[in-house]
């Protein structure tokens, strides 16, 4: 169980940022999956939005991002690179496309994102309410202090509030985007979905690492001879 959590912590955004004392552009890029990962995350949704805005036709709007997702996966296979992220993205696109196709409503392309954001918000909020904020668990593992931060009021308070900030981000996405979904405003919904994605995630990730570095003591360095 602890080994699985360790792998998850290292693969998290904070895990990628934990390589240095100060966040760097390279570390931030790595935390978001690199240039290719960012492109694979953004382009399918952008393509759906552009095609639907231009045609107001659901079928080509769905086919375009699926074809792009397949292309991303094939490119990784050909280059013998890990395909997990691309395949995961393709499955998400396929599920979103299926929901939209079954309902005949373009706005249902974004339903999966609502459930994902809601699940993250609820899980993080519950972790705070039970006294084990997720950000603290991840940070404690990465900083080599385990769960000892729970016995330090300042660290415990910082991790609680930092986790709540992440809850607020996921909740804000729902509060802003759900009214647009129910009103059927696909164009504005898709635009805000893109703007509230990586542009919100990246600065919050940097803030989180700055807070973690500020409240957790640095590991002692071995003496040099």
TrEMBL record:
Keywords for the protein's UniProt record, in alphabetical order: Membrane, Transmembrane, Transmembrane helix
Top-level division of the source organism's lineage: Bacteria
InterPro entries documented for this protein: UCP010219 (IPR016566)
A UniProt-annotated Pfam family: DUF3159
Transmembrane keyword on record: yes
TM region positions: 27-52, 58-75, 87-106, 118-142, 163-182, 194-216
Protein name: DUF3159 domain-containing protein
